[in-house]
Amino acid sequence: MRQRGKSLLVARTSSWLLAAFATCVAGIGFAQPYPSKSVRLVSPYPPGGPNDIVARLVAQRMSLAFGQQWIVDNRPGRGGNIGTDLVAKSAPDGYTLVHGGMGSLTLGPFLTKLPYDAVRDFAPVTLTARVPNAIAVHPSLPARSVKELIALARARPGELDYGTSGVGSTAHLTGALFVSLAHVNMVHVPYKGGAPAMIGLVAGQVPIAFLPLSPLLPHIEAGKVRVLAVSSPQRSRLLPAVATGIEAGLPGFEMNPWFSVLAPAGTPREIIARLNAEITRFLRTPEAAKLLAAQGADVAYSTPEELTALIKSDLDKWGKVIRDNGIRGE
Asked: Mind spelling out the 3-state secondary structure of the chain?
């Protein structure tokens, strides 16, 4: 009996030791440094657009900084809402992030019923860039300044069309803000994306367009498009001779679209802090400023708390513009 009891004690002790060892091994697995595998950065817009271009620049440099591949995954659709929702519902482990924009985070909530909450469902990391919109006209339009455009629009109420990249886009909101502040009546022509709208402007299908500055640059240089003003609070370094809308005599005309990196809500704070430190370290370099400027973008970075505050303030600001202008989603 004593021998049997001794054997049973040994067996139980062995089981406890094995269980403790397994727990330690699991603990070691969970304690692996972040990141220990590739990171997916979702761009919720089509390839080649401003969001995608900035996302790829960030991903390329973060692959070097972290020693793990950062993969840009384009998930376009519904104004950026599809890709943004994908990340909102992803595991909060730092391996699926979104390169979010104003459209899906601060404009979309007022235009359609979204399956996510821009504040509750994300852990902001940092801003990455700002890409101002431009008031662009076809060379045949007899307006060489904002004042002349306003005068022309007032002389021809309801006759001038303006193109944008779609209903509820930052370009559309820029156009709506212009119409509201200038007290003019122009007809909105929404295209299915910035590229088709730009083609429409160059071809003369619409005489005016409100579009991101970056894709317009080659057409500006070729003389196929004339830019009257930019919507940012400061002049663009790429077009220093072009005034801001405010400088051109339209007080309050400011729309400075931004992009940012966000993780799913619940992502550990230490991962958010590590991501913020590495991404902002790159964005502070002269190289980052040069690379983004070549794409018509300005470097922007922030703390997670500052990005949270920006999202909340833009929800208030642009929600009012959308309501006041009666803008509805498609």
From this structure: CHHHHHHHHHHHHHHHHHHHHHHHHHHHHHCCCCCCCCEEEEECCCCCCHHHHHHHHHHHHHHHHHCCCEEEEECCCHHHHHHHHHHHCCCCCCCEEEEEEHHHHHHHHHCCCCCCCCCCCEEEEEEEEECCEEEEECCCCCCCCHHHHHHHHHHCCCCCEEEECCCCCHHHHHHHHHHHHHCCCCEEEECCCHHHHHHHHHCCCCCEEEEEHHHHHHHHHCCCCEEEEECCCCCCCCCCCCCECCCCCCCCCCCCCEEEEEEECCCCHHHHHHHHHHHHHHHCCHHHHHHHHCCCCEECCCCHHHHHHHHHHHHHHHHHHHHHCCCCCC
